[in-house]
Write a structure and sequence with these properties.
By secondary structure, the chain is an alpha+beta fold. Helices cover 27% and strands 47% of the residues.
Amino acid sequence: MDEKIKYELEFPIMSSPQLLYQYISTPSGLQEWFADNVNSRGEFFTFVWNDTEEKARLSSKKSGEKVKFRWVDDENNDGDYYFEMRILVDEITKDVSLMVVDFAEEGDVAESKQLWENQVSDLKHVLGSV
């Protein structure tokens, strides 16, 4: 398997950090914008898009600030890759941004970034942040 490239995206979001955190950290919140269906059993989350199912472990979280999901295999062993969503609040302006860290194969980075842009656009609609 090819080595994947890490990339980061930052999206300004008109929302309180507390509300935004609910949408990035809970199955019901993630299901509103990130995947067609999201289920969790303990620290393991199952994400469903169309007929594709991917499983990840909530490897770290800091309430109101960030969540990090590490992809796992069929035996729930941690994979090499993860995605992380961090909530950034500007100390002076109090502007809120969502920072996304993810990985993609070299030829897929632009497509992956576009996918995140589409998904975060859906999130903004759900939050009324358009």
